User: Which sequence fits this backbone?
């Protein structure tokens, strides 16, 4: 009987020693963070936007990577006007801004034009949709600027690459707008300019 107990104790000690020597640990699983806006290419705010001279050729936008830049800390901006123009190789959409500071932005192609706050999906014309989010935005009573009061969508038959510019609503410090693009996700660039203050989106037309 005593011999049996000794054997059992010996076996238990050997098992414990084997577990300690193995050094094995439970695998640690990591789950990715919740996806946010698409990975964006950082931009440089405040650069002058070139305006082509008559007959001058400018390089057309050639990539569809999402674009992003930070607003200035003092930005309190309201969209006051939307203008479109046609150039060799690209069409241009300009959001004119009133109020202090310089804008930031996040711009990318989206499959659905879903409005912030309400969650309502907009019916946007064209083959593809650019979502434009202007950061550093403010309500008119904070910026002191009269908001855009033109047609929604804004259209210009002389700029056929842009099917329409929809909404300029402010929600939680961000102006959200959608650009209906006539082609299937052509390249685009985003820049800001001063005198007057504006956000500029150039869209390749082939």
Assistant:
């Amino acid at each position: 009987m005593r011999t049996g107990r000794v054997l059992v104790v010996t076996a238990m000690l050997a098992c414990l020693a084997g577990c300690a020597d193995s050094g094995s640990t439970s695998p640690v699983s990591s789950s990715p963070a919740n996806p946010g806006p698409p990975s964006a290419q950082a931009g440089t705010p405040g650069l002058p936007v070139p305006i082509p001279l008559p007959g001058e050729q400018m390089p057309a936008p050639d990539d569809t990577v999402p674009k992003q830049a930070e607003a200035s800390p003092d930005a309190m901006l309201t969209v006051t006007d939307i203008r479109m123009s046609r150039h060799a190789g690209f069409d241009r959409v300009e959001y004119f801004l009133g109020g202090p500071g310089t804008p930031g932005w996040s711009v990318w192609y989206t499959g659905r034009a879903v409005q912030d706050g309400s969650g309502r999906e907009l019916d946007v014309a064209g083959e593809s949709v650019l979502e434009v989010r202007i950061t550093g935005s403010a309500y008119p009573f904070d910026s002191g600027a009269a908001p855009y009061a033109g047609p929604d969508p804004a259209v210009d038959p002389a700029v056929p690459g842009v099917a329409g510019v929809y909404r300029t609503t402010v929600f939680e410090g961000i102006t959200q707008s959608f650009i209906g693009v006539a082609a299937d996700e052509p390249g685009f660039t985003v820049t800001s300019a001063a005198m007057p203050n504006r956000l500029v989106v150039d869209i390749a037309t082939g």
Observations:
- The two ends are 93 Å apart (CA to CA).
- The longest strand covers residues 78-87.
- Confidence is low (pLDDT under 50) at residues 1-36, 44-48.
